[in-house]
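For homework, think about our next protein:
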Amino acid sequence: MGVEWFRRRYPFPPDLAIPPCWFLHSIAVEELTALMVAYDAAYDQPEPGSDLAAWHVMWCHPTLARLGDLARWGECSHTAVDGCAYVAVTVVEDVEGLAGYVFDDIGTG
């Protein structure tokens, strides 16, 4: 599950939506990573069960409900192209630049 897939698949109202600049908010990266891991665990069961519904009730909706406050979406322009007022950002024009940004951010560079 990727964030762009999630944004398309779950078109939440603006107060719960994940803006395009999500990756510039470090708490959003961590919360969404945890949500992805929980999603993978729920959907990777040998037999269908209640884990799928539980993921929505226990993890998805509560995470999104608190993420707006934690990531402080209200302090940014919500556009990755124009930059994000919440953090200083270098606009990445190419995929290699983005890969380098991610590589450096996770500390493996």
Summary: The two ends are 25 Å apart (CA to CA). Residues 51-71 form the longest helix (21 residues). DSSP finds four helices and no strands in the chain. The mean pLDDT is 79.
